[in-house]
Design brief:
Blueprint (H helix, E strand, L loop, with lengths): L2 E13 L8 H4 L2 E12 L2 E7 L10 E5 L4 E4 L1 E3 L11 H8 L4 H6 L4 H9 L3 H17 L2 E7 L6 H13 L3 E7 L9 H19 L2 E4 L8 H13 L3 E6 L7 H8 L3 E4 L5 H8 L4 E4 L1 H7 L6 H6 L4 E3 L13 H10 L5 H7 L2 H6 L17 E4 L6 H4 L6 E6 L2 E5 L1
Parallel strand pairs: 1-4, 1-5, 6-7, 7-8, 8-9, 9-10, 10-11, 11-12, 12-13
Antiparallel strand pairs: 1-2, 2-3, 5-14, 14-15, 15-16
The chain binds N-(iminomethyl)-L-glutamic acid and fe (iii) ion.
């Protein structure tokens, strides 16, 4: 593979070096080089520097014109639900007319309507849908992503979902405890089935396990049982917690040594303090709060208390139909009162940590993956500033141009 020189950039901007996940003051520190270049070789970043310091390069070097553009690390989406069929336009319209997400869920709509549509797809069609969603992510600047199952809730569809995520280049998470499917008596009966019949194969396909700990889904005791078995099987642990009600997700995540607890819209002071004192990352999903018209998570309080946070889209058909991390960064600054620098770190290096990839990706530094987004802007902060803007000019993945508009 030839080397790739991205030259004459207006800026190259990266979160600072430091032990991931970044917290506190370090979360808000970005290094910016003006009139910069990024040199990639063998799929990795070889050097980042100022054009004025670029010596002559021997050998074959492909060049990419960076005039008027800013380079940032490839964005990392550490929480998505890409494996589903159908859509939820009907429910979207009902919500616009006043119905709530929880009411629709309780009436057998919501997640379960997507379960019906997903089970109706054959494996190939499901894989095509996941690949389509992955192509949307790439155009939005996402170079590394996690993708959950959870719309199958039977062995074959869950395993097909995990396989499709891996095949499309994602890191699969088994969201085996997303909802109770109609053919099971109750949550405990479903967990008996899922842990006995699905977990052994899911553990071979997935990197992590996740549970929807919420009124109407799984309670803290059921979540503990599910996650305990998944940990035993070698999976990293994640939780959906405190989305609508504070239900013990933070204490459970801390006691199990989970990698992350995600959502947190309903978390209050004691939970915030407990999370801040732990190694568990709080993954904030402001696009989902926006899409449902719900309160935003207490991001500023979490960061100020010293918690490690990441930001993600929560891409799914019901509560967050967007693959745009630039939009999430805009929401982080306008709604969560995070700085552009904090938003950048939360969608790059800290999100990489959630996926166990902080040593490989998430910053512009020699030796890390040559994954970059070239922003069509004179200042990297347009990433968050340009609300729903057409900001991604090109994406470099593993040292090759993967998208150019
Ligand atoms: O993270 N809250 C649970 N799961 C998803 C939504 C799933 C759906 O509505 O289809 C979420 O918001
Ligand atoms: Fe989610």
């Amino acid at each position: 593979m030839a080397r790739l020189l991205v030259r004459d950039l207006a800026q190259a901007a990266t979160p600072v070096a430091g032990r991931a996940p970044l917290r506190g003051r370090a979360l808000g520190e970005v290094e910016v080089l003006e009139h910069a270049y990024v040199l990639c070789s063998g799929g990795e970043i070889e050097a980042v520097g100022r054009m004025a310091d670029l010596g002559s390069l021997g050998g074959e070097v492909e060049e990419l014109d960076g005039r008027g553009l800013c380079a940032i690390p490839g964005l990392i989406d550490c929480h998505t639900h890409p494996a589903w069929g159908g859509d939820r336009t009907e429910e979207f319209s009902l919500r616009a007319a006043g119905a709530t997400y929880e009411e629709l869920h309780a009436a057998g709509g919501g997640i379960l309507s997507t379960v019906r549509a997903t089970r109706a797809l054959d494996d190939e069609a499901l894989a095509e849908r996941v690949a389509l969603h992955a192509s949307w992510m790439l155009r939005d600047g996402t170079t590394t992503w996690e993708g959950k199952s959870g719309y199958g809730l039977d062995r074959d569809t869950e395993l097909a979902s995990l396989g499709a995520v891996r095949a499309a280049g994602g890191s699969p998470t088994w969201l085996g405890a997303h909802a109770v499917p109609p053919e099971r008596r109750d949550a405990d009966d479903y967990l008996d089935y899922a842990l006995a019949e699905v977990l052994p194969a899911a553990a071979r396909l997935a990197d992590a396990a996740d549970v929807f700990l919420e009124r109407g889904a799984f309670d803290a005791e059921q979540a503990r049982r599910y996650l305990g078995a998944c940990r035993q099987a070698g999976l990293v642990l994640r939780l959906h917690g405190d989305q609508f009600t504070e239900s013990g997700a933070i204490p459970l995540a801390v006691s199990l040594g989970a990698r992350s607890v995600d959502h947190l819209e309903a978390s209050r002071a004691a939970g915030i303090a407990e999370l801040a004192a732990s190694d568990v990352v709080g993954v904030l999903l402001p696009a989902s709060a926006l899409f449902l018209g719900r309160p935003m998570p207490p991001a500023r309080a979490l960061v100020d208390a010293g918690a490690a946070i990441a930001l993600a889209t929560d891409f799914n058909p019901g509560s967050a139909f967007t693959t745009s991390l630039p939009l999430v960064c805009s929401l982080a600054c306008t709604q969560l009162k995070l700085s552009p620098a904090e938003a950048l770190a939360a969608t790059t290096v800290n999100a990489a940590h959630v996926l166990g990839a902080a040593g490989r990706a998430g910053r512009l530094a020699p030796g890390l993956a040559a994954d970059l987004v070239l922003l069509d802007a004179p200042d990297w902060r347009h990433l968050a500033y340009h609300l729903a803007g057409d900001i991604v000019a090109a994406v470099v993945k593993g040292g090759s141009v993967a998208y150019h508009r």
